[in-house]
Amino acid sequence: METKRTDQLAALRASVVPQGPFHVTPFFAERAEGARIYDVDGREFIDFAGGIAVMNVGHSHPKVVAAIKDQAEKFTHTCFHVVMYEPYLRLAEKLCRLTPGDFPKMALFANSGAEGVENAVKIARYATRRPAIIVFEGGFHGRTLLAMTMTSKVKPYKFGFGPFAPEVYRMVYPYCYRCPLGLSYPACDVACADRLKDFFVEYVAAEQTAAVVVEPVLGEGGFVVPPPEYFGKLAAICRENGILFVCDEVQTGIGRTGRMFAIEHWGEVPDLVISAKSLAAGMPLSAVVGRAEIMNAPHVGGLGGTYGGNPVACRAALAVLEIFEEENLLEKARALGVKARGLLDEMAREVELVGEVRGLGPMLAMELVTDRERKTPATDQAKQVVRTCHEKGLIVMNCGAYGNLLRLLMPLVTTDEELQRGMSILRDALKSVR
């Protein structure tokens, strides 16, 4: 029997790529379109992972492909620091308009979410002349040294890679399903936000703190959504103490939750917003956008990088933003979220393994537990469900501190038929767990 191409490529991968890069599935992509991926052996998959929240406009969107081709035929690189180009400026102009806040803004581009996070911290420290950064339990901010330090989960992201960067402090996140303070919402009066005041006494002084960096919805940490009052309280404490309120919207931004930026659900305005992932539909690009006086604080030459704001990536991002406008993609995202949430809620009623369904818009997850009362993480069962889904043609991922959540990050262009088919596979996989 002839060896499948998948097996051939797997053997090659094992011989030339180190074990460090993990793979969610054992497949190799041949092509992708919309919400579907086709592998090298002709298998079709419904994609509920979206390259980990990168393909909000769908795989190989014709407008993105056309923009990439057009720019590549003109020039692919000059380095913005050597010879400037218009796509960088036009994208900065658009993002300054789209990010929350009715005040002058400026934008800086880098290559990855981690770079965006690290640049935001550099800018915050320079503007405030303070060293400390406060982050949160369950947060994920990247894999470079500072971003890895800011990331909460030890294995696999931090294990063996220390020592870590100094002046990073971690406080509790409002995880109501598993309240770290042992309280119940709403009787708690969102005490986890007020906890920041105690934090200044016990861990780091407010006068030494440059920024609070927070994901509006935890990504890798389990799609945890804070209560309605949370960010209002947190941002107010930051303002009272001259601390910058920075939102890491690398995963939640660019329509993932049904708003262009997730923090809009709370009506709060960050000083700095970090985006990446779906910003350029798979091209390497991240952005830091914020108050002009803060962004403009660092000296000439203090920010940048050889590839940051690459012209091809900028053109892809401009195409993405045009797609949102021309195809009413935020409206479609909200409708998709309502349908998907309804189907997940049905599964929760049918399957005892589901402890909670949560998320915003089409950024959704199910927390699996072996005992609903004790909320015992069903880690092995979650892995089993993920494997079964892959075998049946649906790409999903798990996440959370214990790996017991199933997270859904389907492209916002997913059709009703694809949604129903994918959810049917997921339901059968949940019911097959023993």
From TrEMBL:
It comes from the Bacteria. PROSITE patterns: AA_TRANSFER_CLASS_3. GO terms for biological process: gamma-aminobutyric acid metabolic process. The keyword Isomerase does not apply. Gene3D superfamilies: Aspartate Aminotransferase, domain 1 (3.90.1150.10), Type I PLP-dependent aspartate aminotransferase-like (Major domain) (3.40.640.10). GO terms for molecular function: 4-aminobutyrate:2-oxoglutarate transaminase activity; identical protein binding; pyridoxal phosphate binding. This is 4-aminobutyrate aminotransferase apoenzyme. Its cofactor is pyridoxal 5'-phosphate. Keywords: Aminotransferase, Pyridoxal phosphate, Transferase. Belongs to the class-III pyridoxal-phosphate-dependent aminotransferase family.
